[in-house]
Amino acid sequence: MNKKFVPRQDLAGLKPYSVPKVSAKIKLDANESPFNLPFEIISEIKSEFDGFLFNRYPDPLSTGLKRKIANYYGLSEECVGVGNGADEIIECLLLAYGGRGRMSLAFEPTFSMYQIISKITATEFISLRLDNSFSISLDKTISTIKRFKPYLIFICSPNNPSGNIAPKKTIEEILNQTDALVIVDEAYGEFSKQSVVDLLGSYPNLVVLRTFSKVFCLASLRVGYMLADSEIVTELNKVRLPYSYNSFSQMAAAKVFERRDIFDSFVEKIISERERIMKALREMKGVYPFPSDANFILFRTEINSDEVFKKLLGYGILTRSFEGDPLLENCLRVTVGSAEENNEFLKALERITQE
Ligand code: PMP
């Protein structure tokens, strides 16, 4: 019989996104915040419940949240795009600016969604390798841009999973060499000293991507935003499903953003814990951490990292291991947790490496 519901052949190799089905006492695998929302913000969110219009569709343009974000950055509201997680914004950018016959470029190893969503949107994906210290080679980038003329270029800074930033000078140099959309993914920007937000006025092709999933403790509600020229935001809104971003998330994110100063102390705690873990890892035998400007640390182990991963899990600690990329051989990524969680992690790793 002729099968009518044949899926797209170009997606045959894709696997549904999945997370490991393991329950661990200490979860340091997904770069989330170890802290829940502060109690006072939860109370404010609760107080909105009584009059909440569950029966009405959300505001498709997230006007209230957008206004708050725009005011904070001193931009006009038309320069802010809000989405159901930064993931959705990446999808919309690829829908609007990629597609069949167009190409996107990223620097690997990096966040896997640039490649996955390129594939889903039928955008040809090419990547340049980062060097051994996870830096972008400017010469190779410029010649690749000239040769392949990508429509979108993704720069993840700080980069997931390596943790380092792309220097602002490198990003500016790339912006000077291309008319492509240059998307600087600053999902971990709050943990680093650098942002390219101040370049927005000078480069109409620059998009800065941010999320509420890390510092702002809202991974569960899926909130991301981008800052860009208003024309790009308009294109994004053309391809985004009208009600993709629900009213509850809009309201909660607006409350969080109003009180963003509360989160400064979370950032400070995470950075100081990151530096403490870094120092301890540097002192551990057979463990080699890479510098980080994010809320996680990538480290290489002398012994097989799969073994280390499993043994850490035996101690109830979930980290992230990587397969297939030579630059990530025997590497694990650990999210900075609470001080207690980090102590448990360091204690377990020390034991494992001394066995
Ligand atoms: N960009 C990077 C670099 C990320 O690591 C992540 C999440 N892991 C995202 C974007 C997606 O963020 P969100 O939760 O807002 O979809």
Can you tell me about this structure?
With 355 residues, this protein is α/β, with parallel strands linked by helices. The protein folds into two domains: 9-37 and 263-354, Alpha-Beta Complex (Aspartate Aminotransferase, domain 1); 54-259, Type I PLP-dependent aspartate aminotransferase-like (Major domain) (Aspartate Aminotransferase, domain 2, 3-Layer(aba) Sandwich). The chain contains eleven helices and 13 strands. Helix 6 (168-176) links the parallel strand 5 (152-156) and strand 6. Helix 2 packs parallel to helix 8. It is globular, with a radius of gyration of 21 Å. The termini are far apart. Bound molecules: 4'-deoxy-4'-aminopyridoxal-5'-phosphate.
Task: Give the gist of this structure.
This protein is an alpha/beta fold and 355 residues long. It contains eleven helices and 13 strands.
